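Q: what does this look like with zinc ion bound?
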Amino acid sequence: MFLEHITPGVDLGWIEVVTGSMFSGKTEELLRRLRRACFAHQKVMLFKPRIDTRYSATNVVSHDSNELSAMAIDEAYKILDLSADAQVIGIDEAQFFDVSLIDVCRNLASSGKRVVVAGLDMDFRGEPFGPMPQLLAIAEFVDKVHAICVKCGRPAQYSHRLTKSSDLVLLGETDRYEPLCRHCFDGLTDNRNR
Ligand code: ZN
């Protein structure tokens, strides 16, 4: 389990990335980290891309009297202005931001902030998703979490889409996806190519 590497009194920022397939618990892990920071009276802000409509704009993380609303934004650069006072910045569904998120995270960390990013590492085709590969590369800490393959029970890293849409962004219906391991994902792909 991830534990913070903090030197008391030293204001150094860093980047953490939590990644994996759908149903792997990425957001839960992001929220766990933010809740702990809230509990320590650190100023925490949570952002998500406006494109993600699965959560309401008033999505709330709470612990006792600490409440945290996820702010839905259109462009990654807005995080810089909006989070000026924050010590800890969470970014959920990061794969839907464009590559400018990479510099945004760099700037935040360089200015002394803790940045916790959660996002899908691969799209439904098994291809690297949006800015995630670069974020994984520049982060100090990376955790890849896994779902459980619905076909065989192995650790799953693919978000297999059950519908035929080829749209990269297909949201709101988690029942349109299933987590698969490499073996089972490859088996489906092979069948389709025949
Ligand atoms: Zn499997």
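The longest helix spans residues 26-39. The radius of gyration is 17 Å.
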